[in-house]
Amino acid sequence: MAPPKHDDFMDMASDSDNSFDEGLQRKGKGKSKSTDKRKKDQNKRKPKDVQAYTWEASYTRSWEAVREDEAGSLQHAVEDYVARGRRKRLQDPSTAIRRTIIRHLVLVLDLSASMLDRDMRPTRFSLTLQYAREFVLEWFDQNPLGQMGVVGMRAGVGERIGSMTGNPQDVLKAISDRHKLEPSGDTSLQNAVEMARNSMNHLPTHSSREIVIIFGSLTTVDPGNIHETLEECIKSKIRISMVALAAEMKICRDLCVKTGGQFGVALNEGHFKDLLFELVPPPAQRSLSRAAGAGATTTSANLMLMGFPTRLPGASPPSLCVCHSDLKSDGFLCPRCLAKVCDVPTDCDICGLMIVSSPHLARSYHHLFPVKPYVAVESLDESSPTCCGCARPFPTVVSQTVTEGVSPIGRYRCPDCRQDFCSDCDVFIHDVLHCCPACGK
Amino acid sequence: MDRPSHLSVVIDLDPSRWDTLNLSLFLSHLLGFFNAHVAAKHENTLAVFGAFPAKSVMLYSSSDPIAEIPPNDANSYPPFKLVDSTVVNRIARELELIADDDLDAPVALVGALTKALCYINRLTVEANAATTSSTDQSLEPVALPDPRILIVSVSPDITSSYIPVMNSIFSAQKLKVTIDACQISGPENVFLQQATHLTGGSFIYAERQDALLQYLIMALLSPPSVRRTIAVPTQDKIDFRATCFCHKNIVDIGFVCSVCLSIFCQPVPVCSTCRTKFPIKTLQKLNSSRPPLPQSNSSRAPTPSSSSARPSTTPRPPATPPTGSDQRHLPRSVVNGHAP
Q1: B289 lies in which domain range?
Q2: Which keywords does the record carry (chain B) (predicted)?
Q3: Exposed, middle or buried by CB within 10 Å (0-12, 13-18, 19+), for A87?
């Protein structure tokens, strides 16, 4: 079973190389046909085994997706990927949904001896640290008003590695030194969750409280009844999400499901990263209320008074700041009392106004006002010759293969302003820009 | 300037500002700057976008073939002539096409800016496709060094376009595009200041319009990689004020919904974006602690109840021109009702 599979994969790689070269095009096509046949044979022999492992299944699927057209080009395979992305996006609700944007999260890292296992390259521990750093950066990028703390599970106790902070550099610094985090001993889930819960107890109710656990062990050594901890977490509306590296444990799944979080077992390195990064975007609030029952609908939202400061340049005359009494030139002026503070976001030490930089707030607005999905244009009638966004000329020939959600003439139309965009711009506008160039909304 | 650089210029062409501004002088300065950029290095690329009332147009791009090639002129260098005549002809043609009812509409600066970003994204994708043939790396913007956008603005902030402008700034950050801005007349543009600050560009307020070319050449011709070694003038203060969602006023102290971070200029009982109801206690507390509103604002602004009763979940752009224009001219202490 395994060797022919391997062959298939090799063929595919060489095919995709060749197809860029017009001279080798026929050879590539011949190969693809023969391998197709071989795969069919396999399917007949052992239909169940083909889907046995997720990683094999994904190879099979990508192999089916990458197919040349008559001219030997891979353009349709690429368009197919784009189409799949479009479809995924269409499933997302385009109306405004409630998301918790001021987030507080405790990242719990398993530092028990089980993390030295080498089933993920190079070790579970190194990989976890590497992904944790990327996760921190991405998380702060998407949740600029959030705060994050780090707790480690080592030698049967919970260990505070980094306290709650809004500065990604502080968090990164806390998990940068791997010698301080060297794994040893057993895991205690209860101790770590209790520690994380206590560090979030004082938080205002309108902010979200979350715990993300990277769990490599198959046991937990607890001083008391962990189910009581679970009840406490539900009561204080803490959402626990977990990425398990070894296998699923009943208590882990319970922790996540009952608190409204996500639970996943990583199959391989890539899947590990996917699971972890699924926790980056702010969660919709409805899932919280569903998990915690009717009581959670009263999650007290609040109107907050915030000030948007003026930033002083480095060349301005130096003066004392109110937070550290340091003599410095740059800083931010509180709009209400004109006191100078060193950094934002912060509370003004003089008048108590919450000072935030407005770009921090604006970073999340694309969640609130998403661009409407563009419609694939089917016919050449009344369409402009160039893309409205990047002025690239559109193809004038209609392509033969028809895939759902993909325009045969490469045009995607905004439902509001009726302007056409190419597929590159379509992806760029919806994923990055979040603003239609023609209607400006 | 060892590497070629790409420059996209967004020109604010608002006809209503031309009573104080000489268009032909303004254009001749700009064309001189375009020529300087083209002349600085042979591989330099240039794209010009025009923001007209209610529409935005790409006027020139060096990568797309030009339809009409101007006749040879013995007294001018052909590449300069090509840029100059294309830009001038397109501007003249687009100005003729503007309908009379559109003349008072706000300038589509956002449209031009987003088109410039789309164009840079296209260049990045194309450059990546040319250098690396593998498809999976096409999302990494590596091959296009130092793309930058210069916004030449003559009009004040368009407060209704706050969110699109901010979205454009963040995508410029992602594409590693530097945004420079040069403002020629009117009150200082808060959004452009934030854009240049967040993308590492410079904001120049041209106090003398007849010296525009000098401002442009001295401060904005050098690509960002060179600016580290030469002292380029930057703006002194950056104003981080935002626009409220309810009346499109520019505020420096706002009321923010804790769920969706919508900004309001006065306490509202229900968030118009996510429909969260706020506790009545908070409203009373905020109302009592709130500094008294200046007269200009309270007389013009609708009551909070009318804005909250609006059924739609997304704030509509106002049909009338934004109301906050008077307030912006007031000194900040007056706006707050707080004398320092």
Answers
A1: 242-302
A2: DNA damage, DNA repair, Metal-binding, Nucleus, Transcription, Transcription regulation, Zinc, Zinc-finger
A3: middle
